């Protein structure tokens, strides 16, 4: 039992949910045909962290494929607001977010937009597949 030096009536606890999570994304052409994709197990993290890592992987994949017009759809409103706004939250992923923001402004057109979870079929399918992969990124979903 914890003993405090003073009489304490109220304490504040900050909790952070950490669970085993994955991220993934699909690259489709304008007709909806699959070009490529990725799945990654990001380990023990928050949903926010997994979404940020997913966006980082997605942009790197799109850049490596030489795409010039990219629409990123995310069902995490907080991440979309962070990437499309001027202020950055103070969190452990600020360097990744800074890198993503820099990538968005490179020599290509990138639109980051919010899509409700129920409309994000890609995310729902990836949840079923992520446990089949070890830690790391698999970009061979289109093969």
UniProtKB/TrEMBL annotation:
<protein>
    <submittedName>
        <fullName>Putative serine/threonine-protein kinase</fullName>
    </submittedName>
</protein>
<dbReference type="InterPro" id="IPR012337">
    <property type="entry name" value="RNaseH-like_sf"/>
</dbReference>
<dbReference type="InterPro" id="IPR002156">
    <property type="entry name" value="RNaseH_domain"/>
</dbReference>
<dbReference type="InterPro" id="IPR036397">
    <property type="entry name" value="RNaseH_sf"/>
</dbReference>
<dbReference type="InterPro" id="IPR044730">
    <property type="entry name" value="RNase_H-like_dom_plant"/>
</dbReference>
<keyword id="KW-0418">Kinase</keyword>
<dbReference type="InterPro" id="IPR053151">
    <property type="entry name" value="RNase_H-like"/>
</dbReference>
<dbReference type="GO" id="GO:0016301">
    <property type="term" value="F:kinase activity"/>
</dbReference>
<dbReference type="Pfam" id="PF13456">
    <property type="entry name" value="RVT_3"/>
</dbReference>
<keyword id="KW-0808">Transferase</keyword>
<feature type="domain" description="RNase H type-1">
    <location>
        <begin position="22"/>
        <end position="124"/>
    </location>
</feature>
<dbReference type="GO" id="GO:0003676">
    <property type="term" value="F:nucleic acid binding"/>
</dbReference>
<dbReference type="GO" id="GO:0004523">
    <property type="term" value="F:RNA-DNA hybrid ribonuclease activity"/>
</dbReference>
